[in-house]
UniProtKB/TrEMBL annotation:
SUPFAM superfamilies: Tetrahydrobiopterin biosynthesis enzymes-like. One of its GO terms (molecular function) is dihydroneopterin aldolase activity. This is 7,8-dihydroneopterin aldolase. It is an enzyme of class 4 (lyase). Pathway: Cofactor biosynthesis; tetrahydrofolate biosynthesis; 2-amino-4-hydroxy-6-hydroxymethyl-7,8-dihydropteridine diphosphate from 7,8-dihydroneopterin triphosphate: step 3/4. Keywords: Folate biosynthesis, Lyase. The lineage of its organism: Bacteria, Pseudomonadati, Pseudomonadota, Betaproteobacteria, Nitrosomonadales. Residues 4-114 form the Dihydroneopterin aldolase/epimerase domain.
Amino acid sequence: MDIIFLSEVKVETHLGVPDWERLVAQTIILDIEIAMPHSHSCQTDDITDTIDYGVVVSRIRETLTSKSFKLVEALAEHICQLIMGEFGAPWVKLRVAKPGILPGLKALGVVIERGNRNLS
């Protein structure tokens, strides 16, 4: 299985359980692994034969600007479903980190995996 990875993608969004926490956009950090539905791009060297990571990042930023989430888990699920649904990825692994939210804590977050990882 071929995987595209995007490391430490910084995105602004409204996230938090208390209403006041969602009033101002916060920076979250995403680490994304995306399985490619096929490996044609390895032979063709053509962007149309792969998942365009620039378009993926733009789409994530666009959707997170217009949405608000209480839970990191819900935000992560939304992003995974977006990548699989809009870009045809058969599998996505996503790490969402919300940095500096509590004193003495570098970050908190979740790691989720969706789809079928046992692809050939």
